[in-house]
Amino acid sequence: MRRLAALLLALACPAVAAASLFDGGHIKARALATDYPGDSVFNDVVGGSALDTGASLRLKFAAGSGPFSLDAHYQLLAEQGDSLQLSAASAGSLFTPTALPDDQYRWWDLTHVIDESDDSVVEQRLDRLSVAWTSDKAVLRFGRQAVSWGNGLIYTPMDFLNPFDPAAVDTEYKTGDDMLYGQYLLDSGDDWQFVNVQRRDVDDRVSSDVSSTAIKFHGFSAEREFDLLLARHYDETVLGLGGLANVGEAVVRGDLVVTDTREDGWVASAVVDWTWSWVWGGRNVSAVAEYFYNGYGLRESQYADLIDAAVGARYAGDRVRSTLLQRLYRGELFTIGRHYLAGSLLVEVTPLLNATANVFCNLGDQSALGQLVLQWSAAQDWQLLAALNLPAGSSGTEYGGLETGVGDSTLAVGPSAFVQLAWYF
């Protein structure tokens, strides 16, 4: 970590900031403390609690000439702590955290590990690297970038390329993928978007079997908006329909996505949410209530089959037979049940301090995750982000701890606390 500190200071020095192509950046330092119950298999590796610390540097560079532009984001990332020991002990099991992103299955390998041990890793990578051509009505961009589709605010079945975990606290940047992106704006305000993402399979070959090609139409009708999606994703056909409408003083959004899977035929997933903003006691408040149906999800009685298939396994592309496991390994899904109800309440305590209470409920096994997030603009260009996570549920449930099938041991994770300080320059 001392080596990382020296690199952070060197790369963020005024000489870098003065470079003609420099377009800003940030440094973030974070810590995560996690409690593990006595019956958790994680307790056997790291004890009753774990502490992870990390830091990241992002430097953004941009250049342009006429309709052409270039964007590049350099990252220097470091992680140290007990979670890395968990990952090493389980050989990258599905249910253990992965500390830092890698490019194992991306088209371009733009990640270099500088230093690695059992409990620490330092790496550098390019998270954005793209060239673009822009006109009055069209955009064409090639390279490492990120896109966000769909109308779900917490669960996002239409955003299948690189979504966030619904419980993620820092959602400032998605991890980039290597793609060709195009957008064409019609005179009516409607637009067409196109994406082609290339990836490598488990044999390190660029293959159409693991690529994604999608086209989406976004339209307007009176006070309503709608999306139509057609995609070929990992050699499966995906159809999507979504939209939003004003209902009184609230907004209702939703998406329906159906996929012709190779193993289970057509599978449907859907999300619908209700949002409302108002002023309460002189403070701005906004609320979200969302229902998510996960067509790939399992009933509680089927959890044991998932554990048998997943514990100790690595992602194996199309060699993984379960449609749910495929999406969990690829980072497209983060839930294993079928029916979820989530809510979020944001209160602007002061213009510089926001408090958000979130709850994620698995309606099938009656377990839940509660979350309190604080975001404070501590000073000019400084931001403090903190979160407390409180899982609840009986043994054998998603948030209470899945049973491993070995004695009374579970995959339970107890309360956790996260804090991050960011400096922007």
What topology emerges from the helices and strands here?
Blueprint: H1 2-11, H2 14-17, E1 22-35, H3 41-46, E2 49-65, E3 68-81, H4 82-89, E4 111-116, E5 120-134, E6 138-145, E7 177-185, E8 191-197, E9 212-221, E10 224-233, E11 236-247, E12 250-261, E13 265-280, E14 283-293, H5 303-310, H6 323-330, E15 339-350, E16 353-362, E17 367-379, E18 382-392, E19 416-424
Antiparallel strand pairs: 1-2, 1-19, 2-3, 3-5, 4-5, 5-6, 6-7, 7-8, 8-9, 9-10, 10-11, 11-12, 12-13, 13-14, 14-15, 15-16, 16-17, 17-18, 18-19
Features:
425 residues; mainly beta; 6 helices; 19 strands; globular
- In one word, what is the shape? globular
Q: How far is the N terminus from the C terminus? A: 22 Å
Major pleated sheet: 18 strands, antiparallel, barrel
Helicity, as a percent range: 10-25%
Helix-strand topology string: HHEHEEHEEEEEEEEEEEHHEEEEE
Unreliably modeled segments: 314-319
Mean pLDDT: 90
Number of helical stretches of at least 4 residues: 6
What does the model show?
The protein is mainly beta and 425 residues long. The protein contains six helices and 19 strands. The chain has an 18-stranded antiparallel beta barrel. A hairpin with a 2-residue loop joins strand 17 and strand 18 (382-392). The longest helix has 10 residues, at 2-11. The protein starts with a helix and ends with a strand. Residues 314-319 have low confidence and may be disordered.
